[in-house]
Specification:
The complex is a heterodimer of chains A (about 400) and B (about 375).
Chain A (H helix, E strand, L loop, with lengths): L6 H14 L20 H13 L18 H13 L8 H14 L2 H13 L4 E4 L15 E5 L2 E8 L10 E7 L10 E7 L5 E5 L10 E11 L10 H10 L3 H25 L5 H30 L8 H25 L11 H16 L6 H12 L5
Parallel strand pairs in A: 1-4
Antiparallel strand pairs in A: 2-3, 3-7, 4-5, 6-7
Helix pairs in contact in A: 1-3, 3-7, 4-5, 4-6, 7-8, 7-9, 7-10, 8-9, 9-10, 9-11
Chain B lengths: L6 H17 L2 H9 L6 H9 L18 H14 L5 H15 L2 H13 L4 E3 L10 E5 L2 E12 L6 E8 L2 E8 L5 E5 L9 E11 L4 E4 L1 H39 L1 E2 L2 E2 L4 H28 L5 H29 L11 H14 L3 H14 L4
Parallel strand pairs in B: 1-4
Antiparallel strand pairs in B: 2-3, 3-7, 4-5, 5-8, 6-7, 9-10
Classes of the chains: A alpha+beta (about 400), B alpha+beta (about 375).
């Protein structure tokens, strides 16, 4: 594999990881993060701070905001080595990869100075306040209300499916600031502190039995008048731009995680004899090459990003990316359960490999739902990539 | 791995696509397929003039010295237009096999006429193979008897690269297809765009000089050609699947039912979206495999890459060609509309270089059976 000439950087990341992912952080090694019961948020936050001290947070950010301005290809190398070394799922990625670029694009200098350092240092964590009980796939149906009262915004309403709200300090909220406005008009993106009397966070128990998602209730919650991100009334534009920042870089880190899961499956199949079943052999081989193809697709997206200037439409391979990885993983989850056999449902065997596969089996059900469900992805592909009429 | 394409690579792909969009449009392609025995000699000359026959062959032998990446870029256009030329057979399969023999004298003799397109070669892929050929020594050469039931492009071709066994000794022979004792019969073929030919050999004499390789080099060269061929064939299938998607989206946009274009119905939009997902993932697989082939990976890695491209393109072609027929409705079942041509090509391609289940099983063996070193 050509490496863009980053062999030295690769070695640097690997060396740092082996030096630092040890001692108190040992329990986090290979932790999936979201969905993994072994993941201890308090420790994960200290790990984020360790990464920050090492200069590994915001590596793609511009220097003026404290980043290292590394090119995409080099960021990919970091993500790959991070996962290869057993680095745990990241708690800070909502702030680092979603909010921060949006702050840089739409935020005031005061907002940038106030929030970027906390993200960069791993000391302030962010949650995403988009979905509501009646605004899921139909996000423009947001009903949460915001009004100015004196020098504060007052927020009333409810958000849901809010990952890690109970471990976060702030939330960015899409709310309706113009009473009577419809759809994507009259919205505002607000930065709201989570720890205040007007906010109630209630965990949602998932099919895994664990809870990372929450309902977040706003009942006269307050935030400073200066904490609208972008102009009030233009919240939709900001909200969509934020989603657009989630480009291919982190998917290659995710890819390395999938490869780890694949290796785990192969190991279990060899051990329990599933590897002798001719049909499972076919499915395992198909899963392996499809996973390879996901990597090729992600690299194609990145190659495009290298060349793209702003304003260039999203490439076709980028349109399919979410759909293909999430469906691969969901299929892989079923395959994992079939390889486990009876052990798919028996959670008390104390086998860490089997436990990883059981987690994937259940957690992967959510991959095709969150961040734009399968059905929404297919709409986007048909209407935007294929140009079919709405 | 860097999947960016260079300006030169884009130009190569564009020049072939532009040629074929015109010279192998539906009407011309059908004429070549149904009236020309599946070979368009004029088109072959034009393809050769563009340099497409020497893409990955060394410059010292008249080629362009490029790689598998350029082959797949061009192959997509060949597949999209079902171009009736033996490019895959001659350039990709035979050319790669000769390259892989890695013998300077062999390359110097056989590659220049391939690279220029003056000579067309094909490689026996053992399709429908029955009894093995009888091979006997005669003088310094060999005498070959037997029947090859289905050899691609063997009517258009001048030479057939034929892997045989002389007792325990594997040989790769270059058989002149107009030699005494050879009879060729075009098979009736649903995929008229890729003709298959029965080749009977009765006491055909092969001179020692026409033996390109012996021993382990034969299997190595043929395996290398088949793996490279699988990646390039996969790209052809991506082109075919893409054309089916484009035809379908266009048709749904113009066909009005219930007072509006069919393209406005979500059920149908999702079907097209599924087609695009399959096409783009397969295209990514093909580009990734080709790029890594150019970095000369080892045997196990090559198998994995070829399996990836082969399997995903097979799925995409099966799915998209079938959906194109279905979504065209009644006219999708007519001879007049093109989807059936792609449907047949996709099916024929499935067994051309080994079916996907074989590739997957070989890969599974490397994943699941080998004892860790």
């Amino acid at each position: 594999m050509t490496d863009f000439g980053y062999e030295q950087f690769r070695a640097e990341v690997a060396a740092w990881m082996s030096e630092h992912l040890r001692g108190e952080f040992e329990p986090l090694r290979n932790c999936g993060g979201i969905g993994d019961p072994a993941y201890v948020p308090r420790l994960a936050k200290r790990w984020e701070q360790e990464l920050a001290r090492g200069g590994w947070v915001g590596i793609g950010w511009p220097r003026e905001h404290g980043g290292r301005a590394l090119p995409l290809s080099q960021q990919v190398v970091f993500h790959e080595e991070y996962v290869r070394a057993g680095g745990p799922g990241r708690l800070g990625h909502i702030g680092e990869t979603l909010l921060a670029p949006t702050l840089m694009a739409f935020g005031t200098p005061e907002q940038q100075r106030r929030f970027l350092p906390g993200i960069l240092a791993g000391t302030e964590y962010w949650a995403q306040g988009y979905s509501e009980p009646n605004a899921g796939s139909d996000l423009a149906n947001v009903q949460t209300r915001a009004r100015i009262e004196g020098d504060h915004w007052i927020v009333d309403g409810q958000k849901t499916w809010t990952s890690w709200a109970h471990e976060s300090d702030w939330i960015f909220v899409v709310a309706r600031c113009e009473p009577g406005s419809q759809r994507h008009h009259g919205l505002v993106m607000l930065l709201v502190p989570l720890r205040q009397p007007g906010v109630t966070i209630r965990p949602i128990r998932q099919i895994t039995g664990a809870s990372e998602f929450n309902e977040v209730f706003f009942d006269g919650a307050r935030t400073e008048a200066s904490l609208a991100l972008g102009a009030p009334g233009e919240g939709w534009k900001v909200a969509m731009a934020l989603l657009g920042f989630e480009r291919g870089v982190s998917t290659l880190g995710q890819q390395a995680g999938f490869e780890r899961e694949m290796a785990c499956l192969v190991e279990v199949a060899r051990r329990n004899g599933a590897s002798r079943d001719p049909v499972l052999r076919q499915r395992i081989a198909q899963a392996a090459v499809t996973l390879d193809a996901l990597r090729c697709n992600a690299l194609r997206v990145l190659a495009q990003d290298h060349e793209e200037r702003s304003g260039v439409p999203v490439s076709r391979e980028a349109y399919i990316a979410k759909y293909v990885w999430s469906n691969w993983r969901r299929d892989f989850g079923r395959l994992a359960a079939d390889v486990l056999g009876a052990a798919a449902c028996l959670t008390d065997d104390g086998d860490p490999l089997a436990q990883t596969l059981r987690q994937v089996w259940l957690f992967s059900r959510s991959d095709t739902i969150y961040a734009g469900s399968n059905e929404i992805q297919l709409n986007l592909i048909a209407e935007r990539a294929l140009g079919m009429p709405r | 791995m860097d999947l960016r394409l260079t300006e030169e690579q884009r130009q190569i792909a564009d020049s072939v696509e532009q040629l074929l969009a015109h010279a192998s449009d539906s009407a011309r392609m059908r004429r070549a397929a149904f009236e020309g025995g599946g070979f368009d000699a004029a088109l072959w000359s034009q393809v050769a003039e563009l340099g497409a026959c020497g893409l990955h062959l060394p410059e010292v032998h008249g080629g362009l010295g490029l790689g598998v990446t350029e082959l797949v870029l061009v192959a997509e256009a060949f597949g999209r237009r079902l171009a009736c030329v033996p490019w895959l057979e001659s350039v990709v399969l035979a050319g790669t096999a000769i390259l892989a023999i890695d013998d300077a004298a062999v390359a110097a003799r056989w590659l220049p006429p391939l690279a220029s397109g003056e000579q067309i070669c094909t490689l026996d892929l053992g399709l429908l193979a029955g009894a093995p050929l009888e091979v006997r020594r005669e003088g310094t050469g060999w005498r070959v008897d037997g029947v090859l039931p289905a050899v691609p492009a063997a009517l258009a071709a001048h030479r057939l690269l034929l892997p045989v066994q002389d007792g325990q000794d594997p040989l790769l022979l270059a058989v002149a297809l107009d030699a005494a004792g050879i009879q060729r019969r075009a098979r009736e073929n649903q995929d008229a765009t890729r003709p298959l030919v029965e080749v009977s050999l009765q006491g055909v004499c092969i001179a020692a000089a026409d033996c390109l390789a012996r021993g382990a080099a034969v299997e190595r060269a043929v395996a290398f050609a088949r793996q490279t061929g699988a990646v390039v064939l996969a790209s052809e299938l991506v082109g075919a699947a893409q054309q089916c998607l484009d035809l379908t989206v266009a048709y749904l946009g113009q066909r009005v039912q219930f007072g509006k274009p069919l393209a406005t119905f979500q059920a149908l939009k999702h079907r097209c979206a599924h087609m695009m997902v399959a096409v783009e993932l397969a295209r990514s697989a093909v580009l990734g495999a080709a790029r890594e082939f150019d970095e000369r990976p080892g045997e196990v890695r090559r198998l994995r890459l070829a399996t990836m491209a082969r399997c995903l393109a097979d799925d995409a072609a099966q799915y998209c060609t079938q959906e194109a027929i279905q979504l065209h409705g009644g006219v999708g079942f007519t001879w007049e509309f093109d989807p059936h041509l792609y449907f047949k090509r996709a099916q024929a391609a499935r067994s051309l270089l080994g079916v996907a289940t074989e590739w997957r099983e070989r890969l599974a063996a490397t994943l699941l059976d080998e004892v860790a070193a």
